[in-house]
Design a protein that fits this description.
With 211 residues, the chain is α+β, with helices and mostly antiparallel strands. The protein contains seven helices and seven strands, in the order H-E-E-H-E-H-H-H-E-E-H-E-E-H. It has two domains: 92 residues, Type I PLP-dependent aspartate aminotransferase-like (Major domain) (Aspartate Aminotransferase, domain 2, 3-Layer(aba) Sandwich); 112 residues, Alpha-Beta Complex (Aspartate Aminotransferase, domain 1), CATH 3.90.1150.10. Helix 5 packs parallel to helix 7.
């Protein structure tokens, strides 16, 4: 915040996961930073909070009136989101608080399941996430993208396999994340248990054939 104020910069905070906070921790918004109203911009979306992937409806929030005035002009110059998405988003806003309590509890239990399974696999290093619904794991192999491709093309158990995102693309520094994966724990717990069983078996087989 001090750096932004010194150089006249905006700080844009993507807070779409602000409800997905675990272990009793609390979210702190950029809008809560004292004496920072002119520089703070918060962006949000219904897609993560209400599991409405594809619903291109979100918002920009700032106490900077000039910024919001300019933003409104750009917004009015574009086509609006589909009507059905707007109606659904409006209905979601009125969901009770219990919706979020149950959702967070469920995702925390999914996180714990995946984290425990991963840390019980020899050679895997990962940190337990405190929010969102992804976990990044460093694998005991050289190339995570090659492993993902191999899993999809050549490995399955009972007609099933596991797909994950190579983490290298999430790093700005070339070469970092080459042996890391990002896994999303968005399935129900029974499906996640099965997925981790297949993942463990796949990694074991891959290491045998790719030395």
């Amino acid at each position: 915040a001090a750096l932004c104020k010194k150089h006249g910069l905006f700080l844009i905070s993507d807070e779409v996961y602000r409800e997905f906070i675990y272990d009793g921790l609390c979210h702190t918004s950029v809008l809560q930073i004292p004496d920072f109203d002119a520089n703070a911009i918060m962006v949000d979306s219904v897609s993560k909070r209400y599991s409405a992937c594809g619903a291109r409806i979100g918002c920009i929030v700032s106490r900077n009136r000039d910024l919001m005035s300019a933003t409104l002009k750009f917004a009015q110059a574009r086509l609006c989101p589909p009507t059905i998405d707007q109606l659904a988003a409006n209905a979601c806003v009125y969901l009770p608080d219990e919706y979020f309590h149950e959702m967070v509890a469920e995702y925390q239990s999914r996180r714990d399941l995946v984290y425990n399974e991963l840390t019980n696999i020899d050679g895997i290093i990962c940190k337990k996430p405190q929010g969102a619904f992804y976990i990044v794991a460093k694998l005991p192999i050289e190339n995570a993208e090659d492993f993902v491709t191999w899993m999809l093309d050549e490995f399955q158990i009972d007609g099933k396999t596991v797909m994950a995102a190579p983490a290298e693309g999430f790093y700005a520094t070339p070469g970092l994340g080459k042996n890391e994966l990002r896994l999303a724990y968005i399935l129900n717990k029974e499906a996640l248990k099965d997925a981790m069983r297949i993942f463990r078996a796949g990694l074991t087989e891959y290491k045998k054939t790719h030395k």
